[in-house]
Design brief:
The relative contact order is 0.03. By secondary structure, the protein is an all-alpha fold. Helices cover 69% and strands 0% of the residues. The termini are far apart.
Length: 1413
């Protein structure tokens, strides 16, 4: 142990004694082994010489010393003796690890002491000047790799350890061909080994790759030249510190993953070397030796298709210029691995074959490179081109491989590409999806495992929000993209998820697993969208806090979570809409070319000239070749011009004629009349001849030969022509004799045309040519087999594999052609919250059916599917709420509510219970955004409450209601109905118990009680739809239910504290609903609604109302409406009693509400039921007697007068009419006194000429508003059937005018008399005339006579009293008196008129003026 510690101290000191110790010990062991056999004499002599040399104090350079020490070590390494080889390689490994062999050393040929003679070494080592110029490390690696074909496990492990050390030690400087050599030998060891060496070699390869690419990423752009330097300190020389050094230092050290992997490999190698269990028997050794020979032969023959070799340069890389040697190293490894992965593997190859192992290892190493690709790799144009040219083409081939391991690792590589390189591989990624993945999902010949792996890839892609949104933006929103990848992806997944007929080669369990995985992928799409939105919402919250703290606003947070008013149409949405519109136009064109082209013209997408249309038909993707041919085949002038320009668009220069015909006919399906076909081929012949002028003598030759080629193609590939009747090569040559201006075309030329045409069928661009399947279908039809999907599908495993191989070849050819001809396309990165909205708009139509169907049809034991569907519903609703997508949200919520089965009369299962809980959770969390979806949600809660009530055994809320109009059934039908009701009752009882055990009523109650926390907009939606649900409960249920109406009352109570504007909106919906309930034909329902309205009114009146507001009036308005529309005496009486209670309970709080109260009482005054009238007048009497000051203060005087006037006109009770008249006079006196106080001045009545003085117009209006309703007494004075009431009304009217007329202006007098007094005389005289002429009624005549007499007396008295103010109205008064004189009235009326006229004349002296008038 002392000597070991001394060794460690010596190594730490950095002197060369450590090197000599390493070499001496190794050479001593080798010498001992050489003594066993004479053939190793040369090795022994070199060992002894070096040992003697090391004992001397030599002043030679380190390179010379190491070159000398290297000779016996290399001889030992090439001795074919396993023990000797292991010792030699172990020594070289330690020398490299501790930097005694460094990259700056050059190979120095060893010389003997003091002589010019070199040490004798094998000629195979190379002694030329070129060999001497190579780095010393290169010779070391060559020596190590010279034993790579050795089959001993210990030797192979030691080789791996030494090569790994050479590559991983920075001072070794292994680059270029040396690096390729090290990696190649490690690679080959992996291929031929089957035990722990296999895994060790693989781990070593991964570690080498990590080191190479880490160095490239961390290196500067231009590395300085490498200069020789003395050996550095051991702690700095090696890449990792040995375990012993860390123990002695007793210092914790953080070890990187690469260092840890390196040390792990060293431990594995040491264990394997020191173990005795790795010796193979002779048979296994021979087998491995044969394997090694086979690998060596493959390596020596690079053209061999089995396993290619590593090369330092090739035609593609030898001319490339790299930034530094580290970039070149990384590129060489990547390029070689791509070449290895691209080599084909026979379909029958096993997983243990060398070809398969090589392909798998190369793919795995490529996956390691791509997974850890850094910014240098991802941005280097050279690496990106290598990815496009080599890796993508290799992946295309491997993605259609029938070998499942190859297919699996290829998909992992694709995931790495789409994760790290999607910005540069837009077209390539589209090709993979379109021509590989979607084809595999649609194909009936692909295996279950392949479909599952493709779905797993889609799932992984959907896990990253950035990736899936980028796919949507760059393919579904890009007009230039051929296919909507995201839309097709979701549709395919939805189709897989939904139940269908099971494919023959996929059993039920596999089908369920595949459907479950597809369902997970659909849900993952929604998770990614939610995660995307939450990221922006989180950023917005953080920005808001920063704004509050720092008072800063950052532009990056300006547009997050927009409101529906703020949400505009983003550029992505516009692009998506434009592409959708374009696709609709294309679909219309494919259906009707004329109409479709008109749409393109109208939208301005195509110019209205033949050349533009021709270019459009040739270049626009998605156009049907049949539709193009149909349009070109129309015999019209414009269509013919388009056809001519269409052919002119082709460039046939340098193309052989049959290939030109193939190209030409691939763009459209030629059809139409013979004249059109002839014109088409003539134009083709003209263009082809012009492009290839020296090939044929004239266009006629091209025309005839083209038709001959078309006929040959039809004959060769038609299934209707028997093989024996098909055209032969001789027949084709015979048909084309003398067609070139009387000369024959070269026979070889025609034979080549025949071979190409008959070998490969003409196919329209974008359509696959599946000749084998057509032949099979033709044979089935010929033999009478029914042509169906079952016939097309091949259930036999081998045949199905053959069919898939055929499909794969077609896919591969098409995909490679697309990638090789593709130009770079710009890639747009998703960066805004709004980008997720059109994405969800595209996907929801596929998501909703999938979730609905699965949730409805799956069994309770499929809990994973149930939970995923519910999660999909919840997240879909959340997304639609975020973006205010009403249609999508309503669809998801309605579907989920239906899946609760609360409205279906069948037994509820556990999945329905979970659906109910999901609805409750959505209502709790998304309440502010549900909007119109509240209807379905609240309806679900209503049905849930009914079952909860039934399950708890409580008495239903409608138990006091009686159906007054039951529907009668016939006896036979009644039995059927009873049976159905019993069945429904049975299910309801079972469901109610289940719900009572699983659903907490408090959760639902909390939703209603927490409505005060909803936003102003949300509460309006909530109340509106709650009213609609309540209406359905009352009108459609039998018997009616009151649950929602009760909740409406609770919500109104809870939300009364909202601002007036919001409350006004709420009450608009509530009032309309209370009117609807209050007018319900079922008495108990309407009474319940009215009583609920009364309770709310009392609570609402407790809130103070500001002046000039009318919220109370609006709140009490439903009482008036219900009273007016109701035909029920009980309801009207209840309303009067409710109003009376409100007056007695909350009179001090009533302001604008008096208007509504008096309106109801006025309606009651006109009621036909005396009891209602009496009840209403009791309230009016109480108000007039005790609360008149409150009425006047609330500015409700006019409404009170109108109400009293209505009671004055009441015909059922004379007593009430008299009291009303008295109350009117009292109101007039109070108002007059109030106006006396408020008015500081009086108006001058008139000047001496009788003209009125200027008056305050505003005050006139105010007085008119107050006094004119009082004069409504004129109605009672002229129309009441009771004479006493008429006279009392008349007397009160004139008494009011006499008492308060002094405050009237002349203008006021004119209005008052014209509007109130004069109509009394007009009505009475008219009624008197009618009663005397047509229908003689002495009693009515007497009443009118009394009114006229009293009226004339009061009028003349009033005129005399206020003569100065009323003198301007003298003509109108005289007209009334004259009317009494002129009418055919009784004499007594005439006498009254004469008396009144005489009084006026006698009392006033201006007789001449009056008589003159």
């Amino acid at each position: 142990s002392y000597s070991f510690c001394t060794l460690l101290v010596g190594m730490a000191s950095g002197d060369y004694e450590t090197r000599n110790t390493f070499v001496s010990r190794a050479l001593e062991k080798i010498s001992q082994l050489c003594a066993m056999q004479k053939k190793w004499g040369m090795v022994k002599e070199s060992c002894q010489y070096v040992l003697e040399y090391l004992k001397k104090d030599s002043q030679a350079s380190p390179a010379a010393t190491m070159s000398l020490c290297f000779v016996p070590l290399r001889l030992a390494a090439e001795s074919k003796a396993s023990k000797m080889i292991e010792i030699s390689l172990d020594c070289l490994q330690k020398l490299m690890e501790y930097s005694f062999i460094s990259g700056d050393m050059r190979w120095v040929p060893p010389k003997l002491d003091g002589s010019e003679k070199w040490m004798e070494i094998p000629k195979t080592w190379g002694q030329t000047e070129k060999d001497h110029e190579k780095q010393f490390i290169h010779h070391v690696v060559v020596a190590i790799c010279s034993n790579s074909s050795f089959t001993h496990d210990g030797v192979q492990l030691q080789i791996i350890k030494a090569l790994l050390t050479a590559v991983s030690t920075p001072t070794c400087g292994v680059h270029g061909s040396t690096l390729v050599l090290a990696v190649r030998n490690t690679y080959n060891i992996y291929l031929v080994s089957y035990n722990v060496t296999n895994q060790t070699a693989k781990a070593a390869l991964n570690h080498m790759i990590n080191i190479v690419y880490q160095r490239m990423e961390s290196a500067p752009v231009q590395l300085p030249p490498v200069t020789p330097s003395p050996p550095a300190d051991i702690s700095n020389a090696s890449m990792s510190t040995s375990t012993a050094e860390r123990v002695l230092a007793d210092e914790p050290e953080e070890v990187s993953p690469d260092v840890w992997l390196h040390e792990l490999v060293e431990v594995m190698v040491d264990n394997a070397v020191n173990a005795n269990s790795f010796d193979f028997d002779r048979v296994l050794a021979e087998r491995l030796a044969n394997k090694v020979k086979k690998v060596d032969s493959m390596i020596k023959a690079p053209g061999t298709p089995a396993t290619p070799s590593f090369t330092e340069t090739d035609a593609d890389t030898e001319k490339m210029v790299f930034q530094n040697h580290l970039h070149r190293d990384a590129f060489l490894l990547f390029w070689n691995f791509c070449k290895l992965s691209d080599k084909p593997v026979p379909d029958t190859a096993s997983e243990e074959s060398l070809e398969m192992k090589s392909k798998m290892l190369s793919l795995e190493l490529l996956l390691t490179i791509l997974s850890k690709a850094g910014p240098v790799f991802r941005t280097s144009e050279r690496f990106l081109q290598a990815v496009k040219k080599k890796l993508c083409l290799s992946l295309l081939q491997n993605c259609v491989s029938p070998h499942l391991p190859v297919f699996r690792i290829s998909l992992k590589l694709f995931l790495a590409l789409i994760t790290n390189f999607k910005d540069h591989l837009k077209r390539e990624i589209g090709v993979f999806f379109t021509n590989v993945f979607f084809v595999i999902l649609d194909s009936t010949n692909s295996t279950y495992q392949q479909k599952m792996l493709v779905i797993q890839v889609i799932y992984k892609i959907c896990e990253t929000p950035q990736t899936i949104l980028d796919i949507f933006i760059n393919y579904d929103c890009d007009v230039d993209a051929d296919i909507n990848i995201f839309e097709v992806m979701t549709n395919n997944l939805s189709r897989i998820v939904q139940p269908r007929s099971t494919v023959a080669h996929i059993d039920q369990k596999q089908d369920q697993d595949m459907r479950l995985l597809a369902l997970k992928a659909l849900v993952m799409i929604l998770r990614s969208i939610v995660e995307w939105t939450e990221k922006f919402m989180t950023d917005a919250n953080g920005a808001a806090e920063k704004v509050v703290n720092d008072e800063e606003v950052h532009e990056e947070h300006e547009s997050v979570m927009p409101s529906p008013q703020q949400q505009g149409t983003s550029d992505i949405e516009k692009a998506r809409a434009h592409k959708k519109e374009l696709q609709e136009y294309i679909a219309l064109f494919n259906k009707s070319p004329k109409k479709g082209l008109q749409k393109f013209w109208d939208a301005g997408l195509v110019e209205r000239d033949s050349k533009s249309v021709a270019k459009f038909l040739l270049e626009q993707p998605g156009l049907s070749k049949d539709a193009i041919g149909e349009y070109l085949g129309v015999l019209r002038e414009f269509n013919s011009a388009v056809l001519s320009d269409f052919v002119e668009e082709f460039d046939f220069a340098g193309i052989v004629i049959d290939e030109a015909v193939r190209l030409f006919l691939s763009k459209f399906r030629i059809q139409g009349e013979a004249e059109v076909i002839d014109a088409t081929m003539e134009k083709f012949a003209e263009c082809y001849t012009r492009a290839n002028q020296n090939q044929f003598s004239s266009a006629d030759t091209v025309y005839v030969l083209s038709f001959s080629i078309i006929m040959l193609h039809t004959d060769a590939h038609s299934t209707r022509i028997d093989k024996k009747d098909k055209m032969t090569k001789e027949g084709f040559i015979q048909n084309n004799t003398k067609i070139d201006s009387g000369k024959d075309l070269p026979q070889q030329f025609l034979c080549e045309i025949y071979d190409r045409v008959t070998t490969k069928e003409f196919a329209l661009e974008g359509e696959e040519c599946n000749q084998t399947r057509e032949e099979q279908n033709a044979k089935k039809k010929k033999t009478g087999v029914i042509d169906s999907m079952a016939d097309v599908f091949v259930s036999d495993g081998k045949k199905r594999l053959m069919m898939y191989a055929e499909e794969s070849r077609a896919i591969l050819e098409k995909s490679k052609a697309l990638i090789s001809t593709t130009k770079g396309q710009s890639f747009t990165k998703a960066s805004k919250l709004e980008h997720a909205k059109p994405m969800f708009e595209t996907a929801w139509t596929a998501l909703l059916p999938a979730f609905s169907v699965i949730l409805e049809q799956c069994d309770n034991d499929q809990q994973a599917s149930i939970d995923l569907c519910l999660e999909g519903f919840v997240k879909g609703i959340h997304i639609s709420c975020i973006f205010y997508m009403d249609m999508e949200r309503d669809a998801f919520v309605s579907a989920l509510c239906k899946l609760t089965f609360l409205n279906n009369y069948r037994e509820i299962e556990e999945k329905n219970i979970k659906s109910i809980k999901a609805v409750i959770d959505i209502a709790s969390k998304e309440g502010n955004y549900l909007r119109s979806s509240w209807f379905a949600t609240l309806k679900c809660f209503s049905q849930l409450e009914r079952l909860q009530l039934l399950g708890s055994g409580a008495k239903p809320d409608f138990s006091f209601l009686n159906d007054t109009n039951p529907k009668k059934k016939g006896s036979g039908q009644g039995e059927k109905v009873d049976s159905e009701k019993e069945k429904i009752r049975h299910y309801e009882q079972i469901n109610s118990l289940l719900i009572a055990n699983h659903i907490d009523e408090v959760q639902i109650s909390r939703i209603y009680s927490n409505t005060s926390e909803l936003s102003s907009e949300a509460i309006v939606y909530f109340v509106r739809h709650l009213c609609e649900v309540s209406a359905e409960e009352i009108e459609q249920s039998n018997p009616p239910r009151m649950f929602s109406l009760q909740k409406l009352i609770e919500i109104a109570d809870v939300n009364m504290g909202r601002i007036r504007f919001v409350w006004g909106q709420l009450w608009t919906h509530m009032a309309r609903h209370f009117v609807r309930v209050g007018t319900n034909p079922m008495l108990s329902v309407s009474m319940f609604g009215i009583d609920s309205l009364r309770q709310l009114s009392i609570k609402f009146l407790e809130k103070r109302e500001l002046t000039n507001y009318h919220f109370q009036r609006d709140f009490l308005k439903p009482f008036e409406t219900i009273f007016h529309e109701s035909y029920s005496i009980e309801i009207r009486e209840l309303i009067v009693r409710c109003v009376a209670q409100i007056v007695h309970a909350k009179a001090n709080h009533v302001k604008s509400g008096w208007k509504a109260i008096f309106a109801v009482l006025a309606l009651a005054a006109a009621d036909k039921n005396e009891q209602i009238v009496v009840l209403a007048f009791d309230t009016v009497n109480h108000v007039t007697t005790n609360l008149s000051s409150l009425v006047v203060a609330a500015d409700a005087f006019v409404d009170a007068v109108n109400c009293l006037t209505s009671f004055t006109c009441n015909t059922l009770s004379t007593n009430i009419a008299h009291q009303s008249v008295k109350h009117l006079q009292r109101y007039a006196d109070e108002v007059g006194a109030e106006l006396e106080i408020d008015s500081p001045h009086h108006h001058e009545p008139a000047d001496k000429d009788g003209h009125s003085q200027p008056s305050d117009t505003q005050e006139d209006r105010a007085q008119l508003r107050v006094w004119f309703p009082v004069l409504g007494l004129s109605t009672g004075a002229s129309q009441h059937p009771n004479l006493d009431v008429r006279l009392a009304s008349l007397t009160t009217l004139f008494e009011i005018l006499r008492s308060h007329g002094g405050k009237f202006t002349p203008g006021m007098w004119k209005i008052m008399l014209s509007g109130a007094v004069f109509p009394i005389f007009d009505n009475s005289l008219c009624d008197l005339s009618l009663s005397l002429t047509h229908d003689h009624d002495p009693a009515e005549a007497k009443k009118n006579t009394c009114v006229i007499r009293a009226g004339l007396s009061f009028l003349t008295d009033l005129f005399s009293t206020f003569y100065q103010a009323l003198r301007q109205l003298l003509p109108e008064v005289l007209n009334i008196i004259l009317a009494c004189l002129k009418k055919p009235t009784p004499a007594v009326v005439t006498d009254y008129g004469n008396t009144a006229l005489l009084d006026l004349i006698c009392d006033h002296c201006d007789v001449e003026r009056v008589v003159g008038r």
